Amino acid sequence: MKPFSRFIVIGWLLGVLPALSFAMALPNHHELSVVLHPEKKSADIHDVMTLNPLDPQKNTTTLALHADYEIEKAAVSGHSAWTVKFSSYKEESSETRLTRIDISKPDRELWPDNLKIEFQYSGTVYDPLRSPSPSDG
């Protein structure tokens, strides 16, 4: 890979890492697998987060993902009765479109010490250093 291309990939990955923002809990461990498709200007992302700790007084924790990414899978490891719901909203301060991800547990259950959440999402990669080609339309 050419040095300039490596710079683009590293810069893009730094843009993906904060793609998921955390309204309640910061990740204790965050593992990303990213497959770039330069010809399609897109990426497929497999993301496993471990959150710790969560507020014991609340039954829901919230995350957000940039709305340009399409979530194909969201699952809470080992907790099939827990729900994951999505809704769209716009961040007031920046007008950024986001997908809100609410993870809810049943009332009778406690948050585990380490909550693992698995995501699969994909989306278009925006490269501000590359001019659009005539074939980009």
Which keywords apply here?
single chain; 137 residues; 4-stranded antiparallel sheet; 1 helix; globular
What's this model, at a glance?
This protein is 10% helix and 47% strand.
Q: What distance separates the N and C termini?
A: 27 Å
User: Oligomer, anyone?
Assistant: single chain
The H/E string reads HEEEEEEEE
Q: How are the strands ordered across the major sheet?
A: 1-4-7-6
Topology:
Blueprint lengths: L2 H14 L3 E3 L4 E11 L4 E10 L8 E7 L2 E8 L6 E8 L6 E8 L10 E10 L13
Antiparallel strand pairs: 1-4, 2-3, 3-8, 4-7, 5-8, 6-7
What does this structure look like?
This protein is mostly beta strands. It contains one helix and eight strands, in the order H-E-E-E-E-E-E-E-E. The strands form two sheets. It has a four-stranded antiparallel sheet with strand order 1-4-7-6, with no helix packed on it. A four-stranded antiparallel sheet has the order 2-3-8-5, with no helix packed on it.
